[in-house]
Amino acid sequence: MSFKSQPNAGEDVDISAGPDEGLIVERIYKAVMEQRLAPNTKLSEARLCETFGVGRMRVRRALLLLSSQGIIDLQSNRGAYVACPDKSEANDVFAARMLIEPPLVRQLAQERSEASLALLTDHIALEDAARKENERTQIIRLSGEFHTKLAQATGNKFISRMMRELVTRTSLIVGLFGSSQNASCPDHEHTNILKAILARDPDQAEELLLSHLNHIQSGLNMDARPQPQDDLAIILGSA
Amino acid sequence: MSFKSQPNAGEDVDISAGPDEGLIVERIYKAVMEQRLAPNTKLSEARLCETFGVGRMRVRRALLLLSSQGIIDLQSNRGAYVACPDKSEANDVFAARMLIEPPLVRQLAQERSEASLALLTDHIALEDAARKENERTQIIRLSGEFHTKLAQATGNKFISRMMRELVTRTSLIVGLFGSSQNASCPDHEHTNILKAILARDPDQAEELLLSHLNHIQSGLNMDARPQPQDDLAIILGSA
DNA sequence: GAGTACACGATTGTTAACAATTCCTGTCAA
DNA sequence: TTGACAGGAATTGTTAACAATCGTGTACTC
Description:
Helix content of chain A: 55-70%
Number of strands of chain A: 3
Strand order of the largest sheet of chain A: 1-3-2
CATH topology of the largest domain in chain A: Four Helix Bundle (Hemerythrin (Met), subunit A)
Oligomer: homodimer
CATH architecture of the largest domain in chain A: Up-down Bundle
CATH superfamily of the largest domain in chain A: GntR ligand-binding domain-like
């Protein structure tokens, strides 16, 4: 599964039977970010074991970690289900983002480092490329991850973790309540936010970000029904 | 261990052999908040098993959760140790708090609810009482938890979780780098912050909070050595 | 025909034995 | 005395069998 063909000197060779729980978490996280794993999808232990070629222990550890990040719900004796945020949680997520992201971009616009700017410009390039190629799943994920990268650009790991959690949750919410056209952020809003940061204009950066978040939220239909769900999604395959 | 003596109608009776991992997490969290569990303290599985009267499985789940919250470090094949933040992490924690808490108190001062104000005034009462009785460990914990309650007062569970993590981390940092006198927040700063909120004065609330955080941070001696640690602390006992 | 009770299959939760690694200790040699 | 090395004890990691729970389908009753 993840054997290296040519053991290189100085590098550890991966001889393990499968990925560790960190990789499992990462794969499921990515599937959620790309909206390939819909809310309420059941993740049975046996299924995950064979998908990842791993024993039950690893899977259970991964599930526990995912549930502590709010990505899945762990129901006693019933199993693990991809989290299914309701209206009230959705409001909390946007409220939290509107509280945190404005001061965040303000700070970025004020004290910028070369590394953080490179991170963001590189990301915008990826987004543009994905849009040009019309790769839906990539666009969706990169759209969300732009905001994660804003947090990473501060170099503060606590802010990064928190934003990652909020963005993941947002992805679930958009999948649940969003119409198909607004699954990703409007085309050039990310670019404009970055421009404001590059121009060292905190006020405009903040304003653009707020209206961006408002666009996303107002594009949602909060009265959409819980959506009956196909219970198997073997879409955890590729890296 | 946690049997109820009088089974009440309508309540579930606790018949289990011991607390579940949630309670274990809570107990260790509390011990850290009260600085009874010092950074770098080793938490061996066997020890925790007998302390809580629980099998290894529960303990390991609890440890995994604690590590995902950054309260402990889980070292492969070596065991679990109470997290020991370094200088750089300490800076990140304060930077994150100075980013998040100001807009948080501003919001509280603007849109306050009865429930949230009650939560905060009740807490201040607890703090005062603990100070009057000179109960050191309580003072330390309540001091930190005031900030957690600020977040809870927003009613937003994401903000609450995040602040809780940051406050816990702060407690470890103060334990490591703080001198004994500033283990808790200066006496009346919390009260004044609450007063500003009650007076619907966002500007002053923000200002008081920022200077409060600055007081805490500037009271630290970041060059204190890693502190050799007594490896056993059976101080997880009481509720 | 509708509803209920029961039993079976599938899935999760738990336990205990086993494997692997680390840490400590005691011995020996320089 | 100090260092390295080897052996053993203690601790963590893993696995597999077992127990408990839940969902479903079937038969039975009203």
